[in-house]
Design brief:
heterodimer; A: mainly beta; 4-stranded antiparallel beta sheet; B: mainly beta; about 5% helix
Amino acid sequence: LAKTTQPISMDSYEGQEVNITCSHNNIATNDYITWYQQFPSQGPRFIIQGYKTKVTNEVASLFIPADRKSSTLSLPRVSLSDTAVYYCLVGDVRWRQLTFGSGTQLTVLP
Amino acid sequence: NAGVTQTPKFQVLKTGQSMTLQCAQDMNHNSMYWYRQDPGMGLRLIYYSASEGTTDKGEVPNGYNVSRLNKREFSLRLESAAPSQTSVYFCASSVGGTSGSAVENEQFFGPGTRLTVL
């Protein structure tokens, strides 16, 4: 399973764009990159998944360079309610073996 | 449509006691999972069931057993609880499949069971 490295914590202000980068140097050919969000006392919630280049949905964008050794989750115009832990997961999702690291605690300040 | 439900929400056990955590989903998903989350850490996969009738070990299966009772239900059993099993347990489900698409692989999580073993 690919090991991921992401910052332990980040602070931002309301209305700013936030970029959280995840490093996954030993990503395998069949691996996908998935991001989840978790609020205190709740289960994680899926944000976005990608394999290469850029993926965008209604809440976030995921940028993946050509070598796929890192990825960046971009949250546009964050609000206080985006304060949460964000997990970067890398794995062959067809085999269901996903590994959650320690995540990044994002704190959005007023 | 309740999504993924878990019972109980809280449980306190003494060392050596047994219990079963229940999980059910009403989304007609094929795959189901059990995770544990220790304070300040990410989730670790205990067991998963890719489809009805199959179960496989995850990262930390020791001390646990699972049963995929039917397509809807996936239970986790602790035969002889130990203090090291104090944790929050999450059940999740997904459509499942082999295409790797986000639709198939997005996991939906339950609210969790907070277990304390004394």
